[in-house]
Amino acid sequence: MKKILLSSVFILISLALLAQTFSILNPSKVDASNGNFSVSGEINTTIEAHMYVVNNTASAADFKVKKVETDIIAGTINTFCFNGQCLPPTVFETSSFMTLQSGDTTLSTDFYADYSPYFHTGASVITYIIVNANDVNDSVSVEVSFNATSTGVNETDYSNVDFSNPYPNPANGFVKFNYNIPYQFSNAALTIRNLIGSTVKEIEISDSQGKLNIIIDDLKEGIYFYSLIVDNNVILTRKFIKN
Fold first, then answer.
1. Residue range of the domain that includes 181
2. Is the pTM of the predicted complex or chain greater than 0.90?
3. Cα dist. 226→64, 126, 203, 238 in Å?
4. How many CB atoms are closer than 10 A to CB 97?
5. Which of 6, 109, 173, 239 lies at a C-alpha separation of 20 to 30 Å from 197?
6. DSSP of 143-165, one letter per residue?
7. Which distant-in-sequence residues (6+ apart) come within 8 Å of 100 by Cβ?
8. Domain containing 201 — which CATH number?
């Protein structure tokens, strides 16, 4: 009786897997459906994970993507791009669908994830779920580990850098920062990015201490991330609101 029961369970699981409309391939185009893979990069770079979606059926099918932050290192930022649109870090599910013809596989630019460690070492784990547009119970997922290392990166201890919070915050026409960088440096800058990761302003810093007064009346209302970069190392990343 037990053998029959186990055989039945095995058959049901096999049928369930076969019934999945989509499968997911890792960057090497190896099947990673309901599995995992990892990607690595330096702590001062953006780590990309390109994934491929395959339509296993005999007809065209629509799908969307969900993101679940399984285990995230504080201070890092992750986004994903889908069907030509890169979404803000705060978006966890696509509002639109993508159609994939029978037997077709998406391109490397159709669906990929970006992870910015911002000088934090270690691994963050994010799960991506491909959902059938016509059947929410028909889905497949993959767990991606983004490993950030400091190999070859300047190991200077920047813990004594003093960079104030933005004021005022929320801001309107301008935003100010006080700073003190008690180290000799070759180059430094403050970069401001919007929610989709595009740089909208970059202010060069030449003095080791002082005040930055940045005009932002040309920016749209919303949330912006600013990063202090010293000698190509991201020292900190925080955010402010533009009214």
1. 162-242
2. no
3. 30, 23, 11, 6
4. 17
5. 173
6. EEEEEEE-TTS-----TT-EEPP
7. 22, 53, 54, 55, 60, 61, 62, 63, 106
8. 2.60.40.10
Whether the CA torsion 216, 193, 64, 10 is positive or negative: it is negative
Tokens describing residue 128: 């991506």
Between 193 and 119, name the one with better pLDDT. Answer: 193
Spatial CB neighbours of 120, under 8 Å, sequence gap ≥ 6: 43, 73, 74, 75, 76, 148
Cis preceding-peptide flag for 88 (omega within 30 of 0): no
Distance CA 12, CA 60 (A): 25
- The answer, yes or no, to whether residue 2 has pLDDT greater than 80, is no
Nearest to 43 by CA among 165, 169, 154: 154
Answer yes or no: do 130 and 32 share one domain: yes
pLDDT confidence bin for 183, thresholds 50/70/90: confident
Same domain, 29 and 130: yes
3-class DSSP state for residue 115?
strand
The answer to whether 131 and 65 have CB atoms below 8 angstroms apart is yes
Tokens of 175: 């935003």
Residue 8: pLDDT above 70? no
Let me know whether 129 and 169 are in one domain.
no
